[in-house]
Design brief:
By secondary structure, the protein is α+β, with helices and mostly antiparallel strands. The protein has 14 helices and 13 strands. Helix 1 packs across helix 2, helix 5 packs across helix 9 and helix 13 crosses helix 14.
Length: about 375
């Protein structure tokens, strides 16, 4: 994705990671040939990921939700077409319902080999996929200070995007087991408050010096400044099978960044939250999704997920109206709350299929390119 400088949040882009599955059985497919074919057909919009059973895509720079939707619809169709040519399909969800990490291989490349040398088995077991939203923030100082303001609200995005209830054929009890699995890496999660770009740069330098990372691109936090683009990158979401859910997530991410940056520029202090409270809120969102109560980090109490989401929408309403997005986003949010998380829908499908998770995988493929 490429993005230009300009007003905060005037541009956005989405990156998605997909599982590659056999077109007949819907089991995980170890197919680097699909990745090569997609890159040949799609150019910079496609690239490989850490596993040979994964494909990553990126939209062009977008200025509106309509552009995001159109780009993703086209790119998903192109990626699925490239996969079909090799007897595969793409599946957009945080985890594959039945796959095991033994079925995938590390993608060949210096970056991934270095990850294996540093992190060992963690790199080989990275059988999860996510959705990342880049929001244009041209000023590096503003980007870091906006990060401080975002910590309180990111758990709600995890709950809305939860699409990874199954792991190696087992119902984990989580809406986003991907969030829990990724938490094994010490460079994931929500960073603490920085206060300034200088403090952020000092931490990055310390982590490089101690051998934890090679550079800031190896920080897999829930939100981080991009080292390639003048953006803040929101990284909390599972890959969503429903295109509507991706558009909703992109809209909320952009508006949250705009409102956070505005608060930072006006000198407002970020919400006072201990790291332990943020971890607890993230855990609860990953555990229950939209189907139970979430921790309202503003009021420091448990509330029904719908109330937390609607309260978030209320705080973003002025900005969403300024963008011309309010009607669409509020409708998409109510739709998401009414039908529940992808995780809940997958469990319902599994129950209907009497535990046959291949039926769940087939439905996820259909929803991905619907």
């Amino acid at each position: 994705m490429q993005t230009g400088a300009g007003q905060i949040g005037s541009t956005l882009g989405v990156e998605e990671e997909y599982h590659l599955v056999d077109a007949e059985t819907f089991e995980l497919a170890d197919m680097p040939e699909v990745v090569a074919g997609a890159i040949a057909a799609m150019g910079d919009e496609a690239q490989g990921e850490i596993s040979t059973s994964q494909l990553e895509i990126a939209t062009p720079v977008c200025e509106s939700l309509a552009e995001v939707r159109t780009a993703l619809q086209r790119i998903r169709a192109d990626a699925d077409r490239a996969a079909r040519q090799q007897g595969c399909r793409i599946l957009a969800a945080g985890t594959h319902p039945t796959a095991t990490w033994h079925e995938q291989r590390l993608t060949t490349g210096v970056r991934y080999l270095e990850l294996f040398e540093r992190w060992g088995l963690l790199a080989l077991q990275q059988m999860i996929t996510g959705c990342h939203v880049h929001v244009g923030v041209p000023d590096p100082e503003t980007a870091v200070r906006a990060m401080d303001h975002l910590r309180a609200d990111l758990p709600a995005l995890i709950a809305l995007a939860g699409s990874s209830p199954f792991w190696e054929g087992v119902d984990t009890g989580y809406a986003s087991y991907r969030t829990q699995w990724f938490a094994r890496w010490p460079v994931t999660g929500t960073p603490d408050v920085f206060g300034s770009r200088k403090a952020y740069d000092e931490l990055v330098a310390d982590l490089v010096e101690t051998g934890m990372i090679d550079d800031a691109s190896h920080l897999y936090w829930d939100v981080r400044p991009s080292i390639r683009f003048p953006t803040l990158e929101i990284r909390v979401a599972d890959t969503c099978p429903s295109l509507d859910d991706v558009v909703l997530h992109a809209a909320l991410a952009r508006s949250l960044v705009r409102v956070a940056a505005d608060g930072a520029l006006r000198g407002e202090a970020p919400p006072a939250l201990r790291a332990e409270v943020v971890r607890g809120a993230r855990w609860r969102a990953a555990r229950f999704g939209l189907e139970d109560r979430l921790l309202d980090t503003r009021e420091h109490r448990l509330r029904p997920a719908g109330e937390v989401v609607r309260n978030l929408l209320g705080r973003l309403r002025d900005d969403l109206e300024d963008l011309g997005d309010w009607d669409e986003v509020s409708a998409l949010a109510e739709q998401a709350l009414a039908r529940g998380s992808s995780a809940a829908r997958q469990r319902a499908l599994a129950l209907e299929a009497e535990g046959d998770l291949s039926a769940v995988a087939a439905a996820l493929v259909e929803e991905t390119v619907r």
